[in-house]
Design a protein that fits this description.
Elements lengths: L1 E6 L6 H4 L2 H8 L4 E6 L12 E2 L9 E2 L1 H9 L8 E12 L2 H8 L3 E6 L4 E2 L1 H7 L2 E4 L9 H12 L9 H5 L18 E2 L2 E2 L9 H19 L1 H4 L2
């Protein structure tokens, strides 16, 4: 899978690529991540990517012509391709969205900045607008990192233990059950006896019960699904 990220701050992604799962995925040839500096496609000496909004108002707006040139310069890889704008106005990014993206041949993430993006660019080039939550950040770079991480880890072969993915939080609309490891007793607190029983049927039932209780307490909205 190829992931292209369009941004005016490419340096923000350097440490992300050198860590953990993303580094492993690229090293194994499961994912290719390419960063594009949007300023490279500006047409003036100052590499201007934004301008004042028509009609007045606060802030600046990213220019449609510059963004269009940047997207058009990205090579098209395969037929299963989506161009996504990271936007506070977009649909909420969920585990299911990450799973959808992991099945693509190419994902292009456009990081918005300033007051917004010229609507004409969105209408002509963007397949989906994605938000990681109901709050406003200064740009789309951090949301793009979240989408990148959540998506790449779901690409087949990236994580060694595929079974662990099926038990994770938000898979099946439930939060994951509590996890424990050594020591068996920590500051007077012992792990539940059932986890030491060796009875896999009882352990499975206990974990399901804990998932339901945790979801009801922390995210009752998920149970409605």
């Amino acid at each position: 899978m190829r992931i292209d990220i369009l941004t005016i701050f490419p340096e923000m992604f350097a440490s992300v690529f050198d860590s953990s799962i993303l580094k492993r995925a690229q090293g194994a040839g499961k994912a290719e991540v390419v960063i594009h500096n949007i300023r490279d496609y500006a047409r003036d000496a100052h590499h201007t990517v934004d301008d004042a909004p028509y009609g007045g108002g606060a802030g600046m707006v990213m220019r449609a012509d510059v963004l269009a040139s940047a997207v058009e310069a990205v090579p098209v890889v395969g037929k299963k391709r989506q161009v996504v704008l990271m936007s506070a106005q977009g649909e909420r990014f969920l585990q299911g969205t990450a799973r959808e993206f992991s099945g693509l041949e190419q994902l292009v993430l456009v990081c918005g900045r300033y007051e917004g993006v010229d609507e004409r660019f969105i209408e002509h080039f963007i397949d989906r607008e994605i938000s990681i939550g109901d709050y406003v950040l200064t740009g789309g770079e951090i949301p793009a990192m979240a989408v990148l991480d959540a998506t790449v880890r779901l690409i087949p072969g990236v994580l060694g233990n595929a079974a662990s993915l099926e038990a994770e939080t938000f898979v099946g609309s439930l939060l994951e059950y509590p996890q424990y490891t050594r020591p068996a007793e920590f500051r007077g607190n012992k792990i539940p006896d059932v986890l030491l029983s060796g009875n896999h049927k009882e352990i499975k039932a206990w974990r399901k019960e804990q998932s339901l209780k945790r979801t009801a307490k922390r995210r009752p909205d998920l149970l409605k699904k």
